[in-house]
Amino acid sequence: MARLKERYQTEVIPKLKERFSIANQHAIPKLEKVVVSMGIGRAIENKSRLDEGVAHLTTVTGQKAVITKAKRSVSGFKLREGNPIGAMVTLRRDRMYEFVDRLIAIAIPRIRDFRGLNPKAFDGRGNYNLGLVDQTVFVEIEVDRLEFYQGMSVTFVTTAKDDEQAEFLLRSLGMPFRESATPTPN
Predict the structure, then answer these.
(1) Which domains does the chain have, with CATH numbers?
(2) Cα-based torsion angle of the residue sequence 104, 105, 109, 110 in order, rounded to the nearest 10 degrees
(3) How many helices and strands in the chain, by DSSP H and E?
């Protein structure tokens, strides 16, 4: 069993039950999925960038990345509908917990000039979005072989009813948020 999943079941669930007075076991907020995506706009000019981006995303997440395509044409960007412009991975269950554990314990502390994650990046429905400037914060990426630096977006989808429950859940799992008005779990 994943270390973070075990922590969720033994430590976080009792905290959530107590803090929000939840009696029903199925109403307890949990991580549903994590979506890691990479927009590679320069893939139009250079197809090898898309291949390298897919390889990096696959290496970082441990799951094969899917190529995303443009939904509509934009002449200003020389973009046509159907052009490959990015990659994404949806993680669930044990792979999700393993990725989040590596993200919290290894990758986020490697961010240069890190002062905490923005606690205002919730969407109002209990989901959190995190943007990473480049993929070198993950130890799996070999910086010597890197041809280009590419940012990525990580979306945490929870079953929480609101942002307060989602923030408490993620803080309890170990996400290093900047201090905000909500109390932190002990």
Answers:
(1) 3-173 (3.30.1440.10)
(2) -110
(3) 5, 5
| pTM for this predicted structure | 0.79
Distance of alpha carbon 171 from alpha carbon 158, whole angstroms: 13
- Distance, in Å, from the CA atom of 117 to the CA atom of 114, rounded to the nearest integer, reads 8
Residue with tokens 């959190």: 128
Residue 95: both structure tokens together? 């792979």
Output the CA torsion sign for 114, 131, 143, 4: positive
Q: How far apart are CA 60 and CA 75, in angstroms?
A: 33
User: Any residues with CB less than 8 A from the CB of 121 and at least 6 apart, and which?
Assistant: 128, 129, 130
Q: In whole angstroms, what is the distance from residue 176 CA to residue 117 CA?
A: 6
Taking only the tens place, the pLDDT of each residue in 10-29 is 888 888 888 888 888 888 88
DSSP one-letter code for 137? G
Give strand pairing partners of 37: 88, 153
The residues pairing with 118 across neighbouring beta strands, listed in sequence order, are none
Q: Do residues 54 and 67 lie in contact, with contact meaning Cβ atoms separated by under 8 Å?
A: yes
